[in-house]
Amino acid sequence: MSHISKKTLFAAAGLLVALGGVAIAQQDRFSVKVPDGISFSEFRGYESWQMISVSGHEGIIDVILGNPEMIAAYKSGIPGNGKPFPDGAKMVKIHWNSKKFSDTFPVQAPDTLHDIDTMVRDSKRFTGPDHWGFSQFNYDTKTATFSPLGKGPNCGTACHQAAAKTDYVFTEYPVR
Question: What DSSP designation does 40 have?
Answer without folding.
Answer: G
